[in-house]
Design brief:
Elements lengths: L14 E5 L17 E5 L5 E5 L3 E3 L9 E3 L4 E9 L3 H8 L6 E3 L5 E3 L11 E7 L10 E11 L4 E3 L5 E9 L13 E4 L3
Antiparallel strand pairs: 1-2, 1-9, 3-6, 4-5, 6-12, 7-8, 9-10, 10-12, 10-13, 11-12
């Protein structure tokens, strides 16, 4: 329903874009331009998680906690990427520059499966109407700095469309305001 109350679960698909860290956020209702590269659409479920538990402090005068702090915090985005070519897969694993083309015959492309010790950092943008809880309006998750983490696992289905499980972890970006250093969600409301 377009007039339903805000909800907590993302439904539908989103488009996944990556860019060099520092790339400007596009308008919520515009197709990304500049250095934004479309990795492809998502399939299945996608999620955004705010991780990091609280530490509670107690004293001798109270039975319950008297203070709580969050010593660690993470923002994690998980999704299944579809419509892959080797260049997209290589961006998630390590570096697109590692894909090597050979003229053949037959023409081939080779992608190493080794990820390397230091991951490449990206800005990440997940865009689509699934991100807005206010109806069929565009929305986008913007993570200004982060890395692909987890253990990307490709799967192949009967339809011949490969799917890659992805997990993206935000890294604090000191070029953003304090509250936005791990990213933000922006949605159109009308």
């Amino acid at each position: 329903m377009a007039s339903s109350q805000p909800f907590e679960q993302l439904t539908g698909t989103l488009s996944v874009y990556v860019a060099p860290v520092g790339e400007a956020e596009p308008a919520v209702n515009a197709t990304p331009a500049g250095n934004w590269y479309l990795l492809g659409p998502t399939d299945g479920e996608q999620s955004q998680q705010n991780a990091g538990g609280l530490t509670y402090f107690r004293d001798n005068d109270h039975q319950g906690p008297v203070k709580a702090v969050r010593p660690e915090e993470d923002v994690i985005i998980a999704f299944n990427l579809v419509g892959l070519v080797l260049e997209d897969w290589a961006r998630v694993l390590d570096d697109v520059a590692n894909v090597v083309s050979a003229g053949g015959p037959p023409a081939t492309k080779t992608m190493p499966l080794k990820r390397g010790a230091v991951p490449n950092e990206f800005a990440l943008l997940l865009k689509g109407t699934a991100a807005s809880p206010y109806g069929a309006f565009p929305g986008q998750f913007m993570i200004p700095r982060g890395v692909f983490d987890g253990e990307p696992q490709p799967t192949w289905a009967k339809d011949g469309r490969p799917m890659l499980e992805c997990e993206f972890h935000a890294i604090e970006d000191d070029n953003q305001s304090d509250i936005n250093r791990l990213g933000w969600l922006k949605v159109q409301t009308a």
